[in-house]
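Translate sequence into structure tokens.
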Amino acid sequence: MVVVFTGDMSTTSHAVHGRVRSGVAMATTSMLCVQLGLAVSVGLIDRVGPEGAAWLRLTWAGLFFLVVGRPWRIRFTRSSLAAATLLGIATAALTLLFMAAVARLPLGMASALEFLGPLGVAVARGRGGARLVWPVSAAVGVLLLTQPWSGSADPVGVAFALGAACCWAAYILLTQRVGDEVAGLSGLAVSMPVAGLVASLTVGPSVIGRVTPELLLFGIGLAVLLPIVPFTLELLALRRLNTAAFGTLMSLEPAFALLVGLLILGQVPGWLSAVGVGFVVLAGIGAERTGGREEEPLPVVREDCAVAA
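Result follows.
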């Protein structure tokens, strides 16, 4: 039997490109929120330390998703529940390590080092002739931004940023898996409370004494800016972009960090850093042109009161 396809290929192509554009817009907005949130957090670090700033953000975000998402009403498979839990652990580690890095390095440099995680995902998951072109362009940009040959970077801060890079790679892979397996934003209803719990258990006892009622209220607003809004947008973006494209698109984040650091924190970059921004922007444009997923996956869970076997 011969099956003849009579559908409109141009319509399908437009639909795919439309998902790519919306995914890129979500990811870009997320990056901007992240960098603004980090810039605001720098002032908070002086009062409660980097671990205190991370704890405030994660705890409030966890409580928000626990109340709004009501995870006890969602029916998960064992696989999706495990993935959401691991995502929460990776989120907590990413946040704690990166805040420690920002306390020791300029925002642009810390973000550039952290970007090595998404870059690794882009190289590992990329396909076709452009698999290495855009990541190589981004890598050159990262080198120009960080200038490791100058020896001026705090080695402890660099180590924290590299640790955050590993966690970010895991975060990207787990976020896409959770987004594919769990309907809507239900995955965040598990991952963010887990992240808040991990932060509370690991650093909470050492920072709770430094937190005032004023800082607790400030933490609510900060949690909305980072991580509630960006993590939600990234979950939705990864339903529209493949992990290679998303990882390369994240190369724009050091550029955002450099700009926010200049405008808000007064961290003036050198000319090499400016050239580095050009390379990462080029990589981001390349990711936008090649990163669509063929179709949006259908989640496999639904609301209920139990956990599926």
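Note: The longest strand covers residues 74-75.
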